Amino acid sequence: MKKLIKLLKDKELNYLNQINDFIDPTCIYVPKDNNYQINDFIYKNTYISNVASSISGQIVKEETKKYNNEDVLCYQIINDFKENYKNKIRKKIIQNKEDLINYLDLFHLNVIIDKIKKITNLKNIVICAIDEECYSFNEYMYLSNYYTEIITTTNYLLELFTIKNGYIVTKNTDSESIKKVKSILGTYPKIKMKLLPDQYLISYPNYLCDYLNINKDETLIFNTYEILILYNALFKNKVLNDKLITISGNNIVKSLIIKTRIGTPLKEIIDKFIEIKDNNYNIYINGLYMGYQINKIDDVIISPLIHTIIINKPVKKEVSDCINCGACYKVCPVNINVKKCYFEKRISKKCLGCGLCSYICPANLKLKEVVKDGVYEEENN
Ligand code: SF4
Ligand code: SF4
Q: What is the best residue among 1, 133, 334 to mutate for testing ligand 1's pocket, by most ligand atoms within 8 Å of CB?
């Protein structure tokens, strides 16, 4: 595997260690399906297009919104602030992998179920508290604030699968969560804490398993958010409707971590919490390297996949011709011939979307946007 590189971090995007709650949005948006219509009352946790409604209230209209960077027709549900729900899922007896999968299916947890199904010879469970994006602090905050729940669930899975090796992995700089986890780890002999250097991409399964010296094909890897989803399902019979998002950037007065509801309009959060310095800014969803740029906040909805918002001063980067330096190939962790893909306008299925090629390119070509995202138009910004 290629050596990881250290990114030059923007000093204005500071380390965050406090959560601000925003769990009472006036409305949420959920992708439309054909089972509901305008004026229907929606109970909290009703599944609409596989997404559990995070509030109770009434559908008042349909509107196209940006959901995971796609224009999606959504229902707008106005919050009645009563948290009405019915048909609570009943806990089943779980004795093996099949029971677990069947139970998680009741919560539509397809991503987690696919991970569990994929590993046939399971020997290790890894819980990774390192954010993929270097300006996100969500995973760290989950571990720091919910370490008991995370360790309890990890131990439950180790017992269920009758395996011995559980790992809680965090950065060696995360002193607060390290102290908290270590304080209770003595009670859980199967779980070890592993501290890794603060390097971009280290949370990718290949790098993670290399550092831990374990076989990726025998390892079930969850991030801390996923393990909390499991905790809520397994121990509380509940859907986790809240999530953390980091809002940061050099064009806002103070960066924050917000606990919010899935489906909340981003604009509502920004208006309530964020002071923007200058109205001329660029917005990046899910970070500067892995994320994507959007033109306006108004339509963006907090989907289950959104974790980071960066609001930055615009940077004028002059785009020039490729100078054949080869840096994009050298830096690509999965050895894609990036330049060739870019000029042939080809997507590579191997691409991790890490953005290192665009970061390193002296000609400022938007390489990742073509190779990963298939966006072929060059934009000057
Ligand atoms: S974004 Fe894709 S092509 Fe570019 S360096 Fe990362 S993996 Fe390679
Ligand atoms: S890094 Fe940029 S300039 Fe260098 S070879 Fe790749 S595309 Fe060309």
A: 334
